[in-house]
Amino acid sequence: MEDLVPTSKCIDAISSRGHYLIILNHYYHLTPFHIIRLFKRNPNVQVVLQGPHIAWNGWKDHYVAGDMLATAILDLQQEIFHDVKDKVMFISPWDMTVATENLDYHPSTNDNIFDMICGFMCGR
After folding, report:
1. 85-118 residue pLDDT tens
2. NXPE C-terminal domain: from which residue to which, for each copy (predicted)?
3. What is the pTM of this model?
4. How far is the C-alpha of 9 from the C-alpha of 19, rounded, in Å?
């Protein structure tokens, strides 16, 4: 457990100089305060907020095992990051993981999701 570092601590450690692409998903971060401080500290930072993906393998108690809770997470993300919506890009891998019939916690399309994010963000 000593190796676990809070996301907020990692974000606060990002330099005020340089160009950075920060990718957050719903497991990592649901508060905008550290992101707002980061934008003030470094205007060259790009932040991507990744929405939930489908995951079902018979886990009746798994919170993303179905559409209902994921839509609540999407609503929460939109509400929580409302004040920085013009600075944070939202990416939803939902359709991609539905199309590939993802069954696992970690999507088999992770590389494709990352490629999609880089395609949107790199060179901006």
Report:
1. 899 998 888 888 778 777 776 777 788 888 888 8
2. 9-122
3. 0.79
4. 18
